[in-house]
Each structure stands twice: as structure tokens, then as C-alpha cells.
Amino acid sequence: xxxxxxxxxxxxxxxxxxxxxxxxxxxxxxxxxxxxxxxxxxxxxxxxxxxxxxxxxxxxxxxxxxxxxxxxxxxxxxxxxxxxxxxxxxxxxxxxxxxxxxxxxxxxxxxxxxxxxxxxxxxxxxxxxxxxxxxxxxxxxxxxxxxxxxxxxxxxxxxxxxxxxxxxxxxxxxxxxxxxxxxxxxxxxxxxxxxxxxxxxxxxxxxxxxxxxxxxxxxxxxxxxxxxxxxxxxxxxxxxxxxxxxxxxxxxxxxxxxxxxxxxxxxxxxxxxxxxxxxxxxxxxxxxxxxxxxxxxxxxxxxxxxxxxxxxxxxxxxxxxxxxxxxxxxxxxxxxxxxxxxxxxxxxxxxxxxxxxxxxxxxxxxxxxxxxxxxxxxxxxxxxxxxxxxxxxxxxxxxxxxxxx
Amino acid sequence: xxxxxxxxxxxxxxxxxxxxxxxxxxxxxxxxxxxxxxxxxxxxxxxxxxxxxxxxxxxxxxxxxxxxxxxxxxxxxxxxxxxxxxxxxxxxxxxxxxxxxxxxxxxxxxxxxxxxxxxxxxxxxxxxxxxxxxxxxxxxxxxxxxxxxxxxxxxxxxxxxxxxxxxxxxxxxxxxxxxxxxxxxxxxxxxxxxxxxxxxxxxxxxxxxxxxxxxxxxxxxxxxxxxxxxxxxxxxxxxxxxxxxxxxxxxxxxxxxxxxxxxxxxxxxxxxxxxxxxxxxxxxxxxxxxxxxxxxxxxxxxxxxxxxxxxxxxxxxxxxxxxxxxxxxxxxxxxxxxxxxxxxxxxxxxxxxxxxxxxxxxxxxxxxxxxxxxxxxxxxxxxxxxxxxxxxxxxxxxxxxxxxx
Lengths: 405, 405
Fold this sequence. Notes:
By secondary structure, chain A is α/β, with parallel strands linked by helices.
């Protein structure tokens, strides 16, 4: 008998009919002789609705209270799914994150899982129950509810699969799997049958919204194969696993894009040690992640420092960067929210010559100016004007012949 | 410093504005130098909405899952109230029933509180927090969520007041207090400044919907004074306490009515020991409470057995009573859902002559036929036709001069 962990996202359980549809899929998996643990997100827009309720009574609600409030969304969907399974004659029980043994640190709204005590889940499986776990939530040492932040339910599923030593971890969502590019931009984009953890991690981090990078990373660390597939279709999806050799087919796997990008340039920075450190430390303290960083060649001990952040962090970043810039005697600060990223991802990209050149040539032929470049072992990212991102994705998909993937 | 437990019902927290209004009242109580514990119900129609969601996916949801689902309603309102207090600058924290230490038996949907471990509540009070507790819910030995059924949040409040040895327990609702009769029926009804536990218990049990009898009973057992008042007004409400002498003013305190009544008559029952026991045991096993029971004088070892039940229990009661009636050779069964109760309540009623006589005369003068009578030390109840109940209440209110209360 196999143990399968399945995760269903909010759009898959948005109403009663969709919950029944998901229940039928789960019941089928169970009838096929599997033990099944299901992680479920909040129904449709529930989380947004709860956030609106909160901001209606408080401009600045405490993150502890917000976490307790938001956690109810997943509790509601988990009980409804257990009831739907009952109406199909399947034996099941819902558990909150706390009951499922998910222990976290105290970082409300973005808690990290510290460990999982799977005893209750195991006991319920042994009783013959399908176990429905409310995703996105856990409990800290104070026995208070925490939420796991972005990608929380995916992370719950992968972490439970690790803890239970599950045979399979399946993430069901509203797309059919991982594509060579966003199918809404590139109509010829192909669904991939499989992808390596590293590539998937770069795809996720650089804008493919199929799965959150932290869940992919967890799968990679514990070498749990993760299937990403549609909860609405019967198609086989994409298997994320570690069995793909690093030097594999040695080609571009996919194109990712990200429009939630803003560029910050501090002009005329005195080239002294410690200045960059000051800036990035203060941004980090404010919870603002800095991405691509470029410091232009120094002329007469004066330099320009450029970096990118999430567009949604632009307002707090401006408040932090401006005073520092005047403090250190910089000439100017430029904040540009009209940029985006396009990335090519594939094993062996950095060690095989020609990929970077072909990427830059392609963009140049499209008349797209490259502002910044960043690379990893398996990725090359260009920062370009926001309004050129879609054209860039289409041109690169053609140039790397991904429609034949 | 006094410790005050306050309870706010669902209509008092039905939307953001009402939550802010309640928060202002709580903050004021705190600013006046009190430690405050607040028990809150689910917002407005939340519970009904959740029940609809449940029956949308399952005709017969398990009561365990239903309890987990319904408990989220009070968790939502408790966090919102904590946030509203924060926006007023008051320090507060929300706790679920489980976190507040409310332990119950396993009777899902109608759990009884077995004990309260108040340590977490005390710790939060000592930190200077106003403690908001989600009402209507607790946790059983399996660490599963249970709900307390009807009157659950009132019971949570009184039980917490007992456990914390609170100085005051205040139940805020959408009425100004306890009246001599339902003000929607009798426009001259007077609000009572105080009432004894016993009288309040009879008023609650016999139809006054201000407070659930189980919460009144708990207050009586532990001698906790309970103030019932409006959350919308600044009026002083009604104090329920034990300090009123049994022989007090020796008069009728109030008139109660109940329309949720059905009458069952088993005609021609052989007058043998054990037959009534069989019937009432089977009804009790099905969770059906039997009220007034009358067995008419036996003629030739044949008797008529009449009793009343809640109108809402009529269908299951019919299924139980019919087979028993034919089993024991009764001639017929009559089920009458068109009846109601009217009661006069007051200390010393049974020991002072004249009250019963005046009640029966008054009803007779109104042309109202009395079908059954039941009495307690402080109450006389008549079962009459449903459509005569309002007239009866008005006539009795006049006859006992309650408009001068």
C-alpha cells in the first residue's frame, strides 16, 4: 500500500461543486488502495475576504491575530472536504495544522516549520481514515496558531510527505503542470513531463507561479519527487525530481518572467568599504529582499550602485534608501518601477558557451535594451523594460526552439 | 482591581462598525481599572452560513466535522475584536476555547464543560492583556474541537467567571434586560432591575429568550451574579442574583410564553406499571426532552397519557411513539402542533393562595381553554391553543398589574 500526500489549492475548492470534484479524485486515489493525506488551501477568495474584514477594524492588525484569523479559512475548507468525502461514503477526518503536528517558529505571517510530529496523522491513517489537513498553518511553542506565508500549503504538503515518508507528493492546482514558458504569453509553450529540482527552483524564483520555491527546495533537500498537475484535468502533469543528470540534454528547459520588479540606482556613491553593506543590512532588517546587484566600475572613487527589489517593496525601500543616500553624500537616487525580468533556465547553461550570446543577440534583434544581467549555474536573467517582457519571452522561446521541447 | 467577564452576542458584533462599538465599551471597562475577559459569539449570521456550506456538500455531515467548522465563526469574531481593541490603543489577545482551557466531554454539537484550566487566561491578564475568548467551543480529551450547543457562549462566559472567580459576569445582548413580559407582545412590559436565579431559570426555560437556562443554572450553582444588558444602550440592565429573599415581595415577577410546543396524547393506554417509563426512555435516548406530563384519572384500568415536547422534535417523536402505542395496545395517538405555553413566574406563587385562581379566571374571561397545567414552586404554566398565547400574555400582564412593576 502506497502513502500519497495530495495538495489542492484554493481555486480547486472554490465552491461546493469544486469541493465535490476534488473529493471524487481523493476517493478514487483511496479506492485504488492508497493511504491518502490531503492538504487543502482556503476556498477561493476567502483569505482576501478575511484580510478585508481585519483592515476594516484595524489599520495595523497584529500579525498574531491576523494569523489566527487567516487560519480559519483552511480549517473551513478542510472540514467541508471531509464532509464531501463522507457523502461519497469515504471515511475521513479533518485536522488543523496544530493537530497534524506541524510545529513552527514564532515568525507570525511567515513562520518556518521547525518539526512535524506525525503521530496523530499516522493514528488516523491506521484507523482507515483519509486525513485532510488544513494547509498554510502550524502551532508555535506557546500553542498559538501561526501561518506559513507565501507557498504555505505547498510547503505543508511537501513537509508532511517528508515526515510521513510518503511514496508520492502531488500538488494539484489550476494549471496542467510546468511549461517551457507562461502559456498565456507563448501559445506554443509545451508542458514539460519532468524537470529537475534546481531548474524548477530557478523557474519558481524567477517568476513561474506554479509552485513556491521554498516547497521545491524542501523537496530537493529530502529528495521527495513532486508531481504538479491540474485538479480539473486528467492529464499527467510534470514530475519534479532529482533523477535528471546535471549534464543532461544540456539545453534550455524554460523561459521565466517576472513583472514584480523595481530598479533602484544610487548615483555617485563614494567608493568606500562598508557603504553597500549599510544599505543592504537596513533593507534586510525591514524584510525587503534585494535581488540582482550591480556596482558600476569606479571612476575617481565614485561609483553607481544599482539593485532590484520587488515592486511591492518600493515604498518602504524608498523611505530607507533616501536618507542613507544623503547621509553618504551620494549625488542622486533613481527609483524605476517600470522594469521586469526575463530568464532562460536549463542545466549546463553557464558551462556551455553560446547560451548567453544567443540570449543577448535575440533581445538585441528585438530592439530590447538590457539594463542589468545576473546569472547562476543554470540561469541567465536580464532586467529589461517592463513593457518589453512579453516580447522577450516569445522571442527567446522561438530562439531556443522550445516549441519542439 | 476587579475582574469582569463580559459576553457579547452575535448581533452585537454583526459587522465592523458594531465590533468597533463593542471594542469601545470593552476599552472603557478596562480604562476604569478592571481586568477584562470577553467572550464573543460568531458575527451575525455566520453560523447559519457555515451550516449552509456544510449541507451543500453533505446531507448528513458528521457532528465532529460540523463542530470544527462552526467553531471558526467565533474564532473570526474574537480575532477581529482583538484587532479593533488594538486600533483603540488597548492591549489585547484572542484565545480559542481550547487555548482558554475549556475542556468538554465528547458530545459533539452539545458538549458539556467538564472543567476549565484558566492558566493561560490568567497569564495573559497578568501581562496586561484584555483577553478575548471565542465562545461556544471547547476541546475534548482527544484535543478535538467541540461546540457547546444552544446557549454555548453564555455558558462559556459564566463558566469562565466561575473558574476565574470573577467579580462580575455581564451578558450583553440586543435587549435591554429581562422584562415582565416580551415587550414585542406587551407594550407596557417593564424592565426588571433584578431577578432571582430561580425565577430567571423558570423565565428562560419557559420561553424568555434573553439567556439560556443552562448558563443561569451555572450562575446559580456557583452564586455568580449575572448582569444582562444591551450592548447598544447605556441602560443598567437586569441583575440576576441570589440575594432576593424567597418570600420577597411575594408577587408575580413576569409572564413567559413559548410557541415551540407540541402536544402528544396516547389514548387508551392499559394502566400497567412501566409503560410510561418505556415511552419516555426511548424519547430520551433519541435526545427528545419531554415537558409537562399528565396522566388522566384511570377508568377501568385504561388511561390517557398526554405530554408536551418541542415542536421541532415532533417528526422524530412521532416515529418513536407510534410503534410503541400499537405495541402496548393503545387505542390512538394524537399529535397536536398547534399549542403553546403561557407561564406566570414569581417567588412564593405555590405557597400563596390565589395566584393560580387568578390565572385561570383571567384566561377563562378571555375565552381561552386550558388543556394542561403544570406548576413548580415559583411557576404556573398553562398549555393553551397557540393562537391564543399572545392574548393570554397581555391579559395576565394586566391581571397581575405588572405594568406597575
